[in-house]
Amino acid sequence: xxxxxxxxxxxxxxxxxxxxxxxxxxxxxxxxxxxxxxxxxxxxxxxxxxxxxxxxxxxxxxxxxxxxxxxxxxxxxxxxxxxxxxxxxxxxxxxxxxxxxxxxxxxxxxxxx
Length: 113
Known about the structure:
Blueprint: E1 2-5, H1 10-15, E2 20-23, E3 26-29, E4 35-36, E5 41-42, H2 46-63, E6 74-78, H3 84-94, E7 102-106
Parallel strand pairs: 6-7
Antiparallel strand pairs: 1-2, 2-3, 4-5
């Protein structure tokens, strides 16, 4: 049986997605940013964004009956490759209970005014 998990973010309704989907024994977590949905803000600090992203993921996993030790792979998109070393250190601390295979991508993000 499939179950949808929402963070309550207005972005989910706007874009038509769920934070996570539970399908049988599998849990699929959507791409997750460091956005703090309680404050509706995102920190400037890449390390704090990383910690917040893991808090967002952990909350979704908890609602699905799982936790970070159950994660088998993560994928990072880091807009500024110079932020990678610090983000990596922060993610290692956030996921210390499980050694996660990591895939890193650097992507240039366009901003429109």
